[in-house]
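task queued by scheduler; priority normal; single chain, no ligands, no partner chains; default sampling; output format set to C-alpha cells
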Amino acid sequence: MTIKKSVATLAIIILGFQFSFSQWTKDKGKGYYKVSAWYLESDEHYTDTGDKDPNATRTNFNFNFYGQYGLTKKWDLIAYIPFFARTTQNDAVSGTTGQVLTEGEAINSIGDIDLGVNYGIFHKNSWALSASLKLGLPTGKSEGGSDGSFQTGDGEFNQLLQLNLGKSFKLYKQSFYGKLYFGFNNRTNDFSDQLTTGLELGTQLIKDKFWLIGRLNTVQSLHNGSLNAQNSQGSIFANNIEYVGLGGEVSYYLTKKLGFSFNYASLLSGKIIAANPSYSIGVFLDMK
C-alpha cells in the first residue's frame, strides 16, 4: 500500500466524531452553534487488509462551523461548514545524509459542506426518536498537489439518511443520556455506499457547567462502487473506507450559553484510512 492509500478522508472523520445528529430537536428559535479547529497528523495508515503501514507524515487541518437551529418544534436545520481546510506533507529526508529526497507540499481550500434537516418523530417521557437527512456537497478540492493526492473534499454528492434514538436516565443518582443511530449513506460518482452506526453516552459532572461525552461509531462500505482506488490523475480518494472509531469530548460552560469543548478521536481498526488520532477544540453558543 502506497502513501496515496493512506490519505485521511476529512469528511469521514469529521462526520463520524463531530457531526452526529441530535435525537432531541431544538424548540422553535433555539439553536446550538460552534466554531472549531480540527487537526490530524498521520505518519501511518491502515491498509486495505486492515494492517498498519508507515507513510510520509501528512497533516490535515481545518476551521469549521457547526450549527443546529430549531425551525419549528419538530424540525431542525443543521449545517457543517469547513470554511478553511489545509492538507500538507512534510519533506522526505534521508536518514543517513540529511538530504531532502522529496519536497513537502500543501493545498488550501474550503472543505466539503454538509447541510441537513432533523425531524422529531416522537418525544415521550425520557425517550426521543428522530430521522435526519444530510446532504454532502462536493465543495472541497478532490485533487491537488503534484500527484493529485492532496484533498480537502471527495468530489462526490452524497445523501445520508439516518434514524436516531435517545434516552435520558439515572445511575446511582447520576444523570446520563444515551444515543443510538443507524444510517445509510448513498454516494455518487461511482463511490461505494456506506452503512453507519453509532453510540453516544454523556453525563453532566458539574451541574450546568461540565459535560463528559464518549462516542463509538462505525462506517462499513457496501463495496458496490466501481471507482478504482487510483483515479486518472494517479491520486487515491476515500472509496471503500471502513473503520471502528472511539472518541471523547469534554464541554465546559463559561456562562449559561457560552462555553468551550475539546474532542479526541481515534480508530480501533480501519481500512484505507489514517491510523493516528485527531483533535479539535471549539467555542460554542448554546441558545436553550
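post-processing summary
- The radius of gyration is 19 Å.
- Helices lie at 10-18.
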